[in-house]
Amino acid sequence: MIRPKALKKGDTIGLISASGATPPEKFVPAVESIEKLGFKVVAGETCRARHGYLAGSDELRASEVNQMFRDSNIDGIFCIRGGYGATKILPLLDFDMIKANPKVFAGYSDVTALHIAFNQKCGFVTYHTPMPSTEFIRPEMDHYTWNSFIENVTATERSDYYLENPPGRPMTTLAAGKATGQLIGGNLTLVTASLGTPYEIDTKGKILFLEDVDENEQRVDRMLTQLKLAGKLDEVAGILLGAWTNCGPENPKHPEHSLSLQTIFQEILGPLHKPIIKDIACGHTLPTMSLPLGRTITMDAENQMIKVIE
Fold it and tell me: Locate the LD-carboxypeptidase C-terminal domain: which residues (predicted)?
């Protein structure tokens, strides 16, 4: 896997939305949050465009992704937010051109669709990170989250470092064991949505990270079951489970009518006999760690250790 050139202060960031429309009041603060890191910002039209729930038409969003990769003056690309719509532009992307111009590409949630495509079709590492209009501008944005983000995008060549939760947030073991493989994945909904398409996630021999938000326990069960029936969970080397924000029972007044996430994970993932670490501080949560998708990692589930290696 190609590691994109690390960003440095003074570099120019292309700011885009491949997914949902950005609330107008969040645009300027989002740009300023990037500038405070020492970067210049070129904001794409999609950061201010709206086509219903989308940041402009499919053609506009795809054209802007292509343009930002093609433009030699753009050093890195940040997605301003997630939402919905990244899967819709995949057929319109110029993957040959993008492959020839690897850059730091950062975002998460709906951006998972692009992470999978760029990792598999273009062969370069991308970064599962918080985003300018959804986390960067929040008052509770913390040092752990900032440091994890900055280290990922400005030190892309580093190896032999650990992915660690913030203090007081221990990871836990769902199934013991050790594994080594390429780190892949992201949002469960988007990973599942890739099945049966030309952009289907390849999990064979890899370590799969999953997280989600606002999906009740039954839906999490359904999506994990779909991945299992598709053979995607049988092929993995190991599994990392992040934050499951607002993923409780469909009817909070009757939790006894649901299954807890712990039960769902034990019943669906436990029988795989793969190493599984859960409670990783990553996803729709703060503090949150950034992840180098496409890098090779080792995991020791019994000791809750995750290490990025050469």
Answer: 180-299
* Cis upstream peptide for 287 (omega within 30°): yes
Helical residues (DSSP H) of the chain, grouped into ranges: 24-35, 58-70, 86-89, 95-100, 112-117, 143-154, 188-193, 217-229, 261-268
- Specify whether the backbone of 295 is left (phi greater than 0), alpha (psi in -120 to 50) or beta: beta
Residues catalogued as catalytic: 109, 211, 284
Which amino acid is residue 192, in one-letter code? T
The C-alpha atoms of residue 92 and residue 189 are separated, in whole angstroms, by 21
Each of the 310 residues of the chain gets a pLDDT tens digit; together they read: 999 999 999 999 999 999 999 999 999 999 999 999 999 999 999 999 999 999 999 999 999 999 999 999 999 999 999 999 999 999 999 999 999 999 999 999 999 999 999 999 999 999 999 999 999 999 999 999 999 999 999 999 999 999 999 999 999 999 999 999 999 999 999 999 999 999 999 999 999 999 999 999 999 999 999 999 999 999 999 999 999 999 999 888 888 889 999 999 999 999 999 999 999 999 999 999 999 999 999 999 999 999 999 8
Contacts of 56 (CB under 8 A, 6+ apart): 17, 21, 45, 46, 49, 50
**Helix, strand or coil for residue 25?**
helix
**Per-residue tokens: 164:** 């660690």
